[in-house]
Amino acid sequence: MLARHRPACAAILCLTATQVWAGDLAVTAGAAEAVALPRTAHLGVYPYAAVSVVLPYDHVSVVPGLGLEYSPDTGHWGFVGTVVFDVPITATLGGDVIVAVAHDQAGGQWRDAQLLVGGGLGVSIATKQIVTSPSICIYSTVGSTTAWSLVPGISVSHVF
Fold this sequence. Notes:
This protein is mainly β and 160 residues long. It has strands at 24-37, 42-56, 61-71, 76-88, 93-106, 114-127, 130-142, 148-159. It contains no helices and eight strands. An eight-stranded antiparallel β-barrel has the order 1-2-3-4-5-6-7-8.
């Protein structure tokens, strides 16, 4: 039953609008720590890789992405879909609002997989084509058993 309480981390894909153009592709690598709430127990460290597309609008960039995460210390893995709304603060700094849906399972146990939804805040620090993004999110499982987790993370993206 522990598998029911293992949350997934979200791939946090944060890019600054002033550094990219419409439809730019980005690849991201990152890691996040999943912590159970309210008991603050370690649930896993999740390194991840993702791809995203940056869609800049007037005062915000919308960044949909899809990633794959894996926790070597728990054996859990899953897919993560995100949408990041990045608002430029300066030419190299952006504020991010993150919405995510994640799938998390132990090994090949598809029937026991969890679906999680979450959201949070982050910042994007851009230098040319590289964007570093620390963030913090909260996730909840979807289904009959509800479990909450806090997920601080950091990612590095390369924009093409």
